[in-house]
Amino acid sequence: MDSIISDSYAVHFNKNAFQALNNHLSEKKYSTIFILVDENTHELCLPNFMAEIHGDYQFEIIEIESGEINKNIETCVGVWEALSELGADRKSILINLGGGVLTDMGGFIASTFKRGIDFINVPTTLLSMVDASVGGKTGVDLGSLKNQIGVINQPVMVLVVPDFLDTLENRQVISGFAEMLKHGLIQDTTYWEALKGAKGLEDMKKHILTSIQIKNKVVLQDPTEQNIRKILNYGHTLGHAIESYFLESDSKVTLLHGEAIAIGMILEGYLSNKLLALSDESLNDIKSTFLNRYDKVEFSNEDIENILKLMKYDKKNSHGKVNFVLLKSIGIPVYDIEIPVELFTEAFAYYKI
Predict the structure, then answer these.
(1) What is the pLDDT of residues 295-346, one digit of tens each?
(2) Tag placement on the chain: N or C end, fewer CB within 10 Å?
(3) Are residues 255 and 311 in the same domain?
(4) Are 222 and 122 members of one domain?
(5) What domain count does the chain have?
(6) Neighbours of 242 (CB within 10 A)
(7) In what order do the strands lie in the sheet with 10-13?
(8) Under the GO molecular function aspect, what terms does this record hold (predicted)?
(9) Looking at the whole model, is its pTM more than 0.85?
(10) Residue 174 lies in a domain
């Protein structure tokens, strides 16, 4: 795979990734190289990653607990303290080896430590490769509210090594695949059709480059999400609210990001059908495609009421209005759409049948 050039950095693949990393470390001569891992990537990914680094460097490994529940400012404080205690300075670098939670949080930690040190992201999940690898969004959750605290700041580079995906359980793979399907829905009908035929991880790996190219193309047009970059949030307005609700509820099984976003894309597909004339055929195609891969989730009336309350915290809101990305057709999105309140109940009813 060829490298993808983003705004101020590149996404490198496979052996090119390690070659680019070794060249960079040799040139920059960092005082200390810090590697941020969780318990899973420490065991399953770090040994293979370290084996590819050539040179005599000072390394320090910092481990955090995995999971969205730990994507908070308290975890950041722990890492900042560890960096300080281990003598990190402005000439240090933080390499984030993990999924989207870890790379989002690691980027935020690096961007704010001593007013900013270099960082490199090495995504190890499908979700983080096709979503978090491009765009420079960093941050943490505020309680159960997704990504409320953060900055947009670019890494030095991103290294995508699909072999790391072989360490994942299937549920994590399928979660990441939801973002790839989203890329087809918002940009490319042909890509959507191709993804529908993917039968397993090896098929999905073949499409990683295309998904990153699609996201990169959008981000380059609008780095700070003032206009067209908003289309990347298709399915996320309701999806994030669902994800937050299931995260904070003691009686619910926590949903992975892609599982919640898959529901959001069905619901927002229904809204698209009612408001932008997305065809019935396309709407049913969206619904069946996601329900063929993602288990249907039960929602009570109380659940729906609480989910809709959480939407007011969505980052895309402006002037007290909840704004949506909807589809005129597959491949043609429209952003900043307001939704009549009564349609939300209808959308959940459509999802249930």
Answers:
(1) 999 999 999 999 999 987 655 555 457 889 999 999 999 999 999 989 999 9
(2) C
(3) yes
(4) no
(5) 2
(6) 26
(7) 4-5, 10-13, 157-160, 118-123, 93-98, 33-38, 59-64
(8) 3-dehydroquinate synthase activity; metal ion binding; nucleotide binding
(9) yes
(10) no
